[in-house]
User: Which sequence fits this backbone?
């Protein structure tokens, strides 16, 4: 198991290095790069030195410092994405388990049809449909001015402050997040239902589960002791494979709702031809996605060492 | 003369078999006839519907069933006097064409990569790392990079979308192949001395066909959805001969308060298409499962 984790960490480091190369290459080979006289190595070094130390060197890179970028760009997007994942798991996991174990074919058919209908709806279409149904005053601005986007603090900031009025602050913060979270939850929720239901159905038909039903007194014991521990190790990696799609959806929703985050920042960079923004977003996205994947891979092995033995042997 | 009549009877038999297969379950009946309708609509936009995007009609007409609506313009007209139904037909045709070409591109490339991965095992870590890098970037990000470095071109956007979904597709197919490869009957064939190429072409691929079709169906759905989102946001707009459904959605947003059908009909077209394709896939899977059982 330890060797498996070390291997995963090592491959993450290689991936991180490749991502850093890609992001610097975007800036280095950009048409408006005024520092083409620097060698690639020098450019690479300067980029990361400036990024990590906040000391301007030879690169006229960023209008903001790193902590501002983290707080106003990466944190809101990550928060929105994580909230969507959380809601999708809370709603989708139990429904998936129930549909996997259900023998009621009508329920399964209705659920499958509903899943297909929602899955087949384009994100922008369903988002605008929900916005219209919720009668929010909204209009779509294609050429975004990043300075005019709806800024927001993060849940972490609110929770970490020593304020006596945390609850009203939290409510104020969560209320505008509800609409984007509802829109974003739909697709991952359907994916969760489909994956969980398929896996649970497969495991429930195994002989050892049938034996467990005979041995155990209650069916919930079979569910929690045998079925889920054997199903989850394969479910988690399948779910994390959809993180890229979720991040894509999050960025699109941010653009549609003109919210502060990676989506609006990226589009602003696109219209301004700002390659520094592009390089940083490439790096940020790459790190977020690969870190979440790494975490899921390691967590599965740590939580379910016996069941995930085929993974690391 | 005898040969011709034999040939004609063979064709007749295969048509009857095909018809029987289509009519064997409700999913295939709905799916196949639905897809035939889509194909018919796509090929008849010019000669049957005479669809053009010329702004030659009265501006902002409501749908035909509303007051002041005109029966000649079922869904009404937009701000520039373009018939929305004509717009829908052309945009739909364009979307289907673009999605099919991107899906075809991914399926062909993935077939090559899957063969390479199967026969040259040392390539696995290399491809795995490349795919990890590719899936680390959401399609919108790659689309922006390409638009800034190359051109805001629809072909580039199709390649971007294809590449974004390629790793998952290759991985899933590889998983199915490897699961099948480890089964006992394949081991028996290998012990019999049947060449690996023959095993993969004549035993593994036919047996993973239902899963393969499901993957292609999912790929098609993902590509059409991603394409709609990206073109809605204005990517790939530099060389559009005909706008697709994403562009149509974007254009119809301005009149959503006057005629919401103009906007929502484009989404409904996508939903219906994806559902029909999933129904066909489900129907084919049922037939293949029955064949497997028998």
Assistant:
């Amino acid at each position: 198991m330890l060797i498996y984790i070390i291997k995963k960490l090592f491959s993450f480091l290689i991936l991180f290095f490749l991502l850093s190369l890609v992001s610097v290459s975007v800036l280095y080979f950009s048409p408006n790069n005024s520092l083409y006289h620097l060698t690639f190595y020098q450019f690479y070094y300067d980029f990361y030195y400036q990024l990590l130390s906040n000391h301007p060197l030879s690169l006229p890179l960023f209008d903001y410092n790193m902590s501002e970028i983290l707080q106003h760009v990466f944190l809101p997007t990550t928060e929105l994405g994580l909230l969507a994942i959380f809601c999708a798991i809370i709603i989708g996991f139990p429904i998936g388990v129930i549909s996997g174990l259900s023998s009621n074919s009508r329920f399964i058919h209705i659920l499958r049809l509903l899943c297909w209908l929602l899955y087949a709806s384009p994100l922008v279409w369903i988002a605008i449909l929900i916005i219209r149904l919720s009668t929010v005053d909204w209009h779509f601005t294609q050429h975004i001015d990043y300075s005019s986007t709806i800024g927001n603090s993060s849940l972490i900031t609110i929770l970490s402050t020593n304020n006596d009025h945390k609850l009203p602050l939290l409510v104020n913060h969560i209320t505008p997040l509800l609409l984007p979270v509802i829109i974003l939850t739909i697709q991952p929720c359907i994916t969760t239902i489909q994956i969980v239901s398929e896996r649970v159905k497969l495991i429930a038909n195994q002989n050892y589960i049938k034996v467990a039903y005979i041995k155990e007194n209650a069916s919930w014991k079979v569910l929690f002791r045998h079925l889920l521990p054997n199903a989850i190790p394969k479910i988690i990696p399948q779910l994390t494979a959809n993180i890229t799609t979720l991040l894509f959806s999050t960025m699109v929703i941010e653009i549609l709702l003109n919210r502060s985050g990676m989506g609006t920042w990226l589009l602003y960079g696109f219209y301004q031809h700002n390659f520094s923004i592009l390089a940083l977003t490439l790096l940020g996205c790459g790190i977020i996605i690969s870190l979440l994947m790494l975490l899921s891979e390691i967590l599965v092995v740590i939580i379910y060492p016996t069941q995930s033995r085929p993974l690391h042997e | 003369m005898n040969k011709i009549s034999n040939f004609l009877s063979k064709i007749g038999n295969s048509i009857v078999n095909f018809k029987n297969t289509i009519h064997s379950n409700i999913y295939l009946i709905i799916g196949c006839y639905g897809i035939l309708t889509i194909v018919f609509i796509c090929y008849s936009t010019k000669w049957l519907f005479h669809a053009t995007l010329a702004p030659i009609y009265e501006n902002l007409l409501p749908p035909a069933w509303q007051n002041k609506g005109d029966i000649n313009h079922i869904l009404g007209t937009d701000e520039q006097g373009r018939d929305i139904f004509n717009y829908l037909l052309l945009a739909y045709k364009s979307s289907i064409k673009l999605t099919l070409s991107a899906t075809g591109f991914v399926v062909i490339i993935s077939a090559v990569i899957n063969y390479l991965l199967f026969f040259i095992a040392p390539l696995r870590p290399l491809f795995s790392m490349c795919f990890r890098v590719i899936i680390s970037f959401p399609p919108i990000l790659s689309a922006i990079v390409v638009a800034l470095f190359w051109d805001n071109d629809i072909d580039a956007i199709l390649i971007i979308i294809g590449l974004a979904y390629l790793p998952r597709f290759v991985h899933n197919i590889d998983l199915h192949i490897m699961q099948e490869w480890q089964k006992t009957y394949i081991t028996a064939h290998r012990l019999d001395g049947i060449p690996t190429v023959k095993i993969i072409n004549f035993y593994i691929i036919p047996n993973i066909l239902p899963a393969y079709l499901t993957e292609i169906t999912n790929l098609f759905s993902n590509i059409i959805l991603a394409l709609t989102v990206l073109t809605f946001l204005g990517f790939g707009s530099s060389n559009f001969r005909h706008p697709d459904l994403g562009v149509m959605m974007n254009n119809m947003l301005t009149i959503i308060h006057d005629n919401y059908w103009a906007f929502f009909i484009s989404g409904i077209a996508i939903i219906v298409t994806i559902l029909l394709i999933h129904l066909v896939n489900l129907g084919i899977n049922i037939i293949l499962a029955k064949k497997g059982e028998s």
In short: The radius of gyration of chain A is 23 Å. Residues 191 and 239 of chain A are 8 Å apart (CA to CA). Chain A has 13 helices and no strands.
